[in-house]
Amino acid sequence: MSHTVYTNLIGGQWTPARTGKSFANVNPADSDDVLGDFPSSGAEDVNDAVAAAAEAWKTWRLVPAPKRAEILYRTGEILTQRKEQYAREMTREMGKVLSETRGDVQEAIDTAYYMAGEGRRLFGQTTPSELQSKFAMSVRMPVGVVGMIAPWNFPMAIPSWKLFPALVCGNTCVIKPAEDTPLSTYNLVQALMDAGLPPGVVNIVSGFGPDAGAPLVSHPGVRAISFTGSSEVGRIVGQTAAANFKPCSLEMGGKNAMIVLDDANLDLALDGAVWGAFGTTGQRCTATSRIILHEKIAAEFTKKLVARADALKVGNGLDESVQMGPQVNQQQIETSIRYCEIARKEGAKLLTGGDPLEDGSFDRGHFFAPTVFGDVSAKMRIGQEEVFGPVVSLITCRDFDEALEIANGIEYGLSTALYSRDVNKAFRAMRDLEAGITYVNAPTIGAEVHLPFGGVKKTGNGHREGGTGALDFYTTWKSVYVDYSDKLQRAQIDNA
């Protein structure tokens, strides 16, 4: 069967990979549904893309920021018009249900409008000089060519987090989409081009991490790297970038805890638990993978959560009645299987799920049952390590202090949540939870584009996506002094 053949985007031209190799983009819910063949690129393709981006930067950086922003605004308008088409294609390539892929496209729309607004701001400072007749200020300057490596779980939203702020700041980009979900990045960039983005400002090199991602990170012409993915790969990316003194933004894993205290609204907390644990089939870096339950409500909450998990309708995300789609590929299924085996051996109690779904309508996809483990202790591997699947662990605590200790007792620090009606405990949670994001009476998922997104500890290296945090990464500060005294003045020299 012939498929649509996609090529790389280099210098505004659709260009076949020099390797001559390609791979199929297959629906994880239905192996008979192939969205197209995408190039499996290598270092030569990366070289071509970086050269095109470097050439485009010469003129793009000189386009006034408000004019750059107008292209982003038009991109938001185009994405709005194409939202349903792009959402359906995203569900086909990634698996998550339509309501979620519509939200993914909407996040890109929101980011377009937010960053378009920044085109008339990009504020610096003006400040008094210590000398007479001298003016002092700081301005944001673009970095140059930025390399971007995107994940598969938010295949349009996260590329928009990277591309849009980089573009409004005056950078040019080479993006490598995740090999599981390249089409959504192509759709996003097509919208940018249709909005008037000049050739070469954004370039797409499709392929696999070792072949295309690694040369992008190490390329001497790339001035900065933005990576979203696993902590294991992020460590390699960060070390490679550091060896070349290259700024690098790493947004990586999480083992996110939701704390439910005995004064919580339990029905609200249950809704949050189901959405946080099983939304996107648990394949979010912010997924609720640990639920820390006060011992007074643990039994009731556990019983109700298991019933809710059992009632979830799993299937092809194109079916509007389906609540949870497939995992993205067989490797993710095998990871979920392995962690369920580890949990059983550790002594955790399997309360529901724990196995792939393979019979009947599931036989052509990568499906895993919504899974809940009880009797989990905080130091078990299932309570410490990221699964990235629909697997949630229940941990019991005696009081709020112990809950905080358990929540913080991991290597990650991305997202956290507290369900309580006690305002004092809410503010303590905001202060004491070691995480880049804390929710009160909401699940660990649901970040908004105008606030910084990222975490602490093993989750990242301190940079943030979203909001002004993104502008800080995609610009570099220049201090400017204008001396209009018409004589030599020496700062920090005693002129008395």
Description of the molecule:
With 496 residues, the protein is an alpha/beta fold. The protein folds into two domains: 8-252 and 460-480, Aldehyde Dehydrogenase, Chain A, domain 1 (3-Layer(aba) Sandwich); 256-440, Aldehyde Dehydrogenase, Chain A, domain 2 (3-Layer(aba) Sandwich). The chain is 38% helix and 21% strand. The protein contains 14 helices and 21 strands. It has helices spanning 43-60, 65-81, 83-94, 98-118, 157-168, 182-194, 209-218, 231-243, 266-278, 298-311, 330-346, 400-408, 423-432, 467-474, and strands spanning 8-10, 13-15, 22-27, 30-39, 125-128, 134-142, 145-149, 172-176, 202-204, 224-228, 248-251, 256-260, 288-294, 349-352, 356-357, 367-368, 371-374, 391-397, 415-419, 437-440, 475-483. It has a seven-stranded mixed sheet with strand order 14-17-18-13-12-19-20, sandwiched between helices. A five-stranded parallel sheet has the order 9-8-7-10-11, with helices on both faces. A three-stranded antiparallel sheet has the order 5-6-21. Strand 19, helix 13 and strand 20 (437-440) form a beta-alpha-beta unit. Helix 2 (65-81) crosses helix 6 (182-194). The longest helix has 21 residues, at 98-118. The protein is globular. It starts with 7 loop residues before the first strand and ends in a 13-residue tail after the last strand.
